[in-house]
Amino acid sequence: MPVAKVVSMEAVKLYRKSLSNLIGKARCLSCDYEWESESPPGFDWLECPSCSLVKGRFIYPVKRKEPHWTCDCGCDYFAINTEGVYCPHCGTWQDGFLETIERV
Q: How far apart are CA 42 and CA 62, in angstroms?
């Protein structure tokens, strides 16, 4: 009979946190304190560790810890309109990323 591995709930929480949270520099709009913040996706406001108000925002764009689509020009930020997705750096229409995502 195979031996089952026991994993602590704390280890599971840390693993889930490492996969899904956004990490980046944040600034409080109330007291101007800056810190390195970590937050689940979808949260617009962050609690400031200095003044405890929920008036913190990420300063720079943040990325999840997963592979990202990159344009041939090297840009990894994209604009979306009714015609599709294009690179704001070189203007190239982007296609093929949905097929790439489905393979992963």
A: 12
Cα–Cα dist 16/93, whole Å: 34
**Taking the CB of residue 5, how many other CB atoms lie within 10 A of it?**
5
Distances (CA, A) of 94 to 17, 83, 84, 103: 31, 11, 8, 17
Closest CA to 72 of 104, 101, 96: 96
Does 34 share its domain with 56? yes
pTM (two decimals): 0.49
Q: Is a pLDDT exceeding 70 seen at residue 87?
A: yes
29 plus 72 within the same structural domain: no
Range of the domain at 26: 1-62
User: 54 φ, ψ to 5°?
Assistant: -90, 70
What percent of the chain is predicted at pLDDT more than 70? 71
47 and 77: one domain? no
